[in-house]
Amino acid sequence: MTVNNDQHRIQSLKGQLIRDVTFGGGLLGRLKQGGSFSSSAVSSNMALADHGDACNIQGHALLFKSISEQEDDEKSLFERQPDNITLEQQRRRDE
Fold first, then answer.
1. In terms of Cα–Cα distance, which of 23, 21, 38 is closest to 72?
2. What is the pLDDT of residue 46?
3. What are the tens digits of pLDDT across the range 20-34?
4. Pairing of strands 2-4, 21-23
5. pTM for the complete prediction?
């Protein structure tokens, strides 16, 4: 984890499974060792400018359903909103 101390925000987060993760003793599901994820955000003047996520996991759910997820997701062009805006006001703007 990388933290921007000036802005009190997480800047990036990366992780990897160091061992298999089981749910219900492996009967409900299992994620295989070596799966990884990462998330990063580059901020400028406390406004989020760019954001990217990556996920690479394999395993199974409910004994038979295979899980194989490889995903990259990038978001950008965020706009700073007024500091005093409420959630309800933002919802009305988005409609």
1. 38
2. 46
3. 988 888 888 888 898
4. unpaired
5. 0.47
> What's the total number of domains in the chain?
1
**92: which 2 tokens?**
């009305």
Q: Using pLDDT thresholds of 50, 70 and 90, give the confidence band for residue 75.
A: low
Tally Cβ neighbours within 10 Å of residue 41: 19
**φ, ψ of residue 78 in degrees (nearest 5):** -75, 150
Q: Which of 30, 27, 34 is CA-nearest to residue 59?
A: 30
User: How many Cα atoms sit within 13 Å of 60 on the Cβ side?
Assistant: 9
Position 45: which residue type? N
Range of the domain at 48: 2-94
Residue where the block lists tokens 């992780």: 15
The tokens of 27 are what?
A: 């009967």
